[in-house]
Amino acid sequence: MKTSTITGEYIKDMITKSYREDGRKMFDYRPINLKIGTMPNAEGSAEASIGQTRVLAGIKIDVAEPMADKPEEGNLMTAAELLPLASGDYETGPPGPEAIELARVVDRGIRAANVVDMGKLFIEKDKVWSVFVDLYVLNYDGNLFDASSLAASAALLSSRMPKYEKEGETGKVVRSGNLGKLPTANIVTSCTFGNILHRLILDPTANEELFIDSRLTIANDEHSIRAVQKGLNGAFSFDEIDEMMDTAFEKSRELRQIIKKAIGE
Fold first, then answer.
1. Per-residue model confidence (pLDDT) at position 249
2. pTM score > 0.90 for this model?
3. What's the pLDDT at 17?
4. Cα gap 73→127, rounded to integer Å
């Protein structure tokens, strides 16, 4: 993505005055919207928007073999697709580094926070439920990590749980009728920060991301920091890291409330 020299100088000038190009303060989010059930044929789904950034998460649950080192636990797999309609910089084809990083960061937060109770996904010997989280970027205007984490968490927490019915030596998956919910045990959100001219900002826009020296995404639940992802070549001081962690805990309370409201809790 390219931006004009004038726009770049304006962004930097505003940052030195502790304001942003869209009028926000340094640790303000853009308007956030979250709705669930946008894909009726999926086990669960949610669409999250932060400003003009929009991400759709879809959940598919199916029977599979367990991992060799966890024979009595289910599987979790997360994938991300940066759709060409979301940005002129995205192209069709195999996932690139940005899509791979996005999927891994979201996946790490979900796993580390034990959002899905994997022990309850055991069916029988050599059979467990596999949960697939598919992320689709519908529009890009910065901060895909937090929008994707919101969408994924809401989709998981609102997912229906298929049934496995034994028929002789085989079985079938039932996806209709009186279904329960996917067993979940936690809510995780992420807060993404950037460093421009030695000033910290939360929820960078696409324009701001062009001038960030370093990036930090903090995934946490109510009690603990569960995962941290550092991006780009710059560095953060210990004091800056402390400030970002404190802010992440503060903002995550607001993000969890948005999720709870969307899923009806």
1. 97
2. yes
3. 86
4. 9
Domain annotation covers residue 234: yes
User: Residue 63 has which token pair?
Assistant: 């029977």
Query: Which residues, in sequence order, are CB contacts of 220 under 8 Å at separation 6+?
Result: 113, 188, 189, 190, 191, 226, 248, 249, 252
> Cα angle at 238 between 235 and 244, to 5 degrees?
85
201-240 residues labelled b (16+ CB within 10 A) or e (exposed): bbbbbbbbbbbbebbbbbbbbeeeebbbbebeeeebeeeb
27, 77, 33: which is closest to 56 by C-alpha? 33
Return the structure tokens found at 157.
Answer: 């927490």
**pLDDT at residue 6 in the model:** 67
- With CA atoms as reference, report the closest residue to 159 among 61, 33, 259, 34: 61
Domain that holds residue 90: 18-263
173-200 pLDDT tens trace: 999 888 999 999 999 999 999 999 999 9
Asked if residue 13 is part of any domain, the answer here is no
**Residue 244 to residues 117, 205, 211, Cα–Cα distance (Å):** 29, 18, 19
Q: What angle do CA 49, 58, 148 make, to 5 degrees?
A: 35
Whether residue 220 lies inside any domain: the answer is yes
Report the CATH number that the domain containing residue 239 is assigned in CATH: 3.30.230.70
Total domains in the chain come to: 1
In this prediction, residue 168 carries a pLDDT of 75
Question: Which residues, listed in sequence order, are joined to residue 61 by a DSSP beta bridge?
Answer: 131
> Is the residue at 150 inside a domain?
yes
> pLDDT digits over 162-173, tens only?
999 987 778 889
* Per-residue confidence (pLDDT) for residue 2, from 0 to 100: 53
pLDDT under 50: residue ranges of the chain: none
DSSP assignment of 155-208 equals: HHHT-EE-EEEEETTEEEEE-SSS-EE--B----EEEEEEEETTEEEES--HHH
